[in-house]
Amino acid sequence: MTNEQIIFNARCQLMEEGLIGTTGRTLVMEMEDGTTKTVPEPEEIHTYAFWKQERGLQVKHGEHAVCTLQIWKCKKKKKKEAQEDDKEIMFLTKGFFFSQNQVEAVQ
Question: Of 27, 31, 34, 37, which is most buried with the most CB atoms under 10 A?
């Protein structure tokens, strides 16, 4: 499963549990049997770093993550010898996710 799929599944589950809200938009999902289902789109969740670097927002003081997920991370492994190329390795790591209601503009 990709990080996007892992995060989307978590968003749907958090919305069903009432821990996050919706964006006000709807999604049309195709089920395994070929039927379609219209569902509300769950609120976005992102890591602390994403909110800060990509959106310029700060997680509010004292807020705790709405969920912790195992996500994939890519890291370059430096070459040991001159003939070898740098290698990229993928590994699972723990990510802490915050909802849009938990962030504010940087002051």
Answer: 27
User: Rounded to two decimals, what is the model's pTM?
Assistant: 0.81
Q: Where are the domains of the chain?
A: 3-105
CB 57 within 8 A of CB 103: yes
Spacing of C-alpha 17 from chain mean position: 17
> Could you tell me how many residues make up the chain?
107
**Do 45 and 67 contact (CB within 8 A), yes or no?**
yes
What per-residue confidence (pLDDT) applies to 76? Answer: 82
Using a CB cutoff of 8 Å and minimum separation of 24, what contacts does 84-92 make? none
53: Cβ–Cβ under 8 A, 6 or more apart, which residues?
none
Given a contact cutoff of 8 angstroms between Cβ atoms, the answer to whether 21 and 49 are in contact is no
Q: How far apart are CA 69 and CA 6, in angstroms?
A: 8
- Tokens 């310029």, residue located: 56
Structural element, H or E, at residue 3: helix 3-16
